[in-house]
Amino acid sequence: DTxxxxxxxxxxxxxxxxxxFRCDPISEHNRLYWYRQTLGQGPEFLTYFQNEAQLEKSxxxxxxxxxxxxxxxxxxxxxxxxxxxxxxxxLCASSYNTGTGNGYTFGSGTRxxxx
Amino acid sequence: AQRVTxxxxxxxxxxxxxxxxxxNYSYSGSPELFWYxxxxxxxxxxxxxHISRESIKxxxxxxxxxxxxxxxxKPFAQEEDSAMYYCAQSPSGSARQLTFGSGTQxxxxx
Lengths: 115, 110
What we know:
The complex is a heterodimer. Chain A is mainly beta. Helices cover 0% and strands 49% of the residues of chain A. In chain B, the strands form three sheets. In chain B, strands 2, 5, 6, 9, 10 and 11 form a six-stranded mixed beta sheet that branches. In chain B, strands 3-8-7 form a three-stranded antiparallel beta sheet, with no helix packed on it. In chain B, strand 5 and strand 6 form a beta hairpin. Chain B starts with a strand and ends with a strand.
C-alpha cells in the first residue's frame, strides 16, 4: 500500500465540460474526505464518507458536484458543467475512525484548470 | 462557524534561530488541533497533534485554551524546515472534517 492515490494528477478542461476524479484511499481506512484548495488558501472541506455512506457535505458542494464511494473503497468526485471558479487543487484524504483524532493521510491531489 | 487564523502568510528566519508560527482557533468546545506541513513538491502531511503532546522534527505546539492558540515552535530552525505550514482543528471526539488556516510559508535562510 503506497498511501492515498489520486488520478489524474492534472486535468485541463473547457468550461461547460464534465470532469471526474478518482481517489484510492489506504485500504484499511474507513473514512474518506474530499477537500478543495485554491491559491493562497488552506484546504476547504467538501464532503466525507464513512465506508460507503456519505455523511456530511459542505455548502461549497453545489448541485454540480457529486461524490460517490461504492462498496466503501475508492471514491469519485464529479463536477458537471465546469466553471472557471472550479479551478483548484482537489485533495483526497483518508483516516481510520478511532475517535482519537489521529489526523489524515492526504493524496497528492488533482489540479483542475478550467479554460 | 469554526475558524482558524494564521496571521503570517510569510515568515523568514535564519538557520539556528528560534521560530514560532502562530495559530488561533475559534471553536468554543474542546477541539482537536493539528499542524500539517507541505514541503516543496510533496503532499500535505501531518506534523503533530495536540493530544499526543509529542515533538516531531524538533517542533512542539502547546494548546492554550485561554488564548485559543496552538502556536508551533522550534528552538533552532534548520534549512530543511522551509515549507508551508497549516494549522487545523476538528470537533473533539473524532477526526471528522478539518478546518484549516490559510497557511504560513516558512523560509529558513542559511
